[in-house]
Amino acid sequence: MFQGSIPALITPFKNGNIDYESFYKIIEWSLSEGSHGFVPCGTTGESPTLSHQEHIKVVDECVRIVDKRVPVIAGTGSNNTVEAIEFTNHAEKSGADAALVVTPYYNKPTQEGLQAHFKKIAESTSLPIIIYNIPGRSIVDMTIDTMSVLSNISNIVGVKDATNDLFRPLLTQTKIQKDFCYLSGEDGTALAYLAQGGQGCISVTANIAPKLCSDMQNLWRERKINLAQDINFKLSKRYFILFLLIFDLFQPTSSPAKHLLYFTHNLSVLIVLTIFTYDIVPTPEQCSL
User: Fold this and answer.
1) Do the annotations mark residue 44 as ligand-binding?
2) Catalytic residue, candidates 57, 68, 119, 160
3) What is the pLDDT along the chain (289 residues), one digit of tens a residue?
4) Closest Cα partner for 183 from 162, 165, 211, 204?
5) CA torsion 285→164→113→90, rounded to 10°?
6) Which residue range forms the structural domain that includes residue 217?
7) How many domains does the chain have?
8) How would you list the strands of the sheet with 200-203, edge to edge?
């Protein structure tokens, strides 16, 4: 089952094109720092604004670079069921280990619509599917009852929970009896999520602090709780830069992460046009916190 610190990878751009040289460097550095898996083409990877061909190539390149050293959970979701199936089938052919499928955004489907959407995708593939529940962005919240129904499908194996509701994993576990994977989608509550029965975090912060994020997860599994809490405190300054400033200034997740990587690793910071650039740039001193 998937666990630990799993970076939701940024997608670096240069001169209007994806910068695969920087993408390679990010992945190799993150692997050397102990990351337990990767998610290409998630929210942080700017998947809604990638072209179809860009999306496919990013997944291909991630799978190729990682080369089975850790799991690759490809973002394959769409509010178009047919497109989500196409992305998921491609991820399976590329050699990805699982698919992360977001609840359809903008359409505002009913709970019955969510069931039909995920059932159709699951039937199209043998890949394990992780539900991505992020009501703050998709404007639809998959209920625990709906998730329980979907968990009866053999290859729907877990959830990336970005509800920021720490009671949710406990309640879900009372409804889902099978071995189900619970991954946090909120860095600020990642450690607390483990205490509620979670197994890991699909993380934005792991782009810029992969060792701290992986160490925190490892220490928790080793039952060294105080040491894990110490690391979480160190990470809190990064959470502030990545998230609190975003909420105050309405900045997208990828912008500050890319700026931090620029300062620390001299990597591309360009983002696609519809995602507004980060107008308060973190300083080198903040990056070294």
Assistant:
1) yes
2) 160
3) 799 999 999 999 888 899 999 999 999 999 999 999 999 999 999 999 999 999 999 999 999 999 999 999 999 999 999 999 999 999 999 999 999 999 999 999 999 999 999 999 999 999 999 999 999 989 999 999 999 999 999 999 999 999 999 999 999 999 998 899 999 999 999 999 999 999 999 999 999 999 999 999 999 999 999 999 999 999 998 887 776 554 444 445 566 676 666 656 656 555 443 444 444 444 545 544 4
4) 162
5) 40
6) 4-287
7) 1
8) 4-7, 200-203, 181-184, 156-161, 129-133, 98-102, 73-75
160 assigned to active site: yes
Closest among 284, 275, 203, 268 to 24, alpha carbons compared: 268
CATH number of domain containing 180: 3.20.20.70
> Strand ranges (DSSP E) for 195-285?
200-203
132 CB contacts (<8 Å, ≥6 apart)? 42, 75, 77, 100, 101, 102, 103, 159, 160, 162, 185
Residue 217, amino acid: Q
Active-site option among 132, 182, 262, 278: 132
Confidence (pTM):
0.90
Nearest 5 degrees, angle CA 113-CA 43-CA 156? Answer: 45
106 a catalytic residue: no
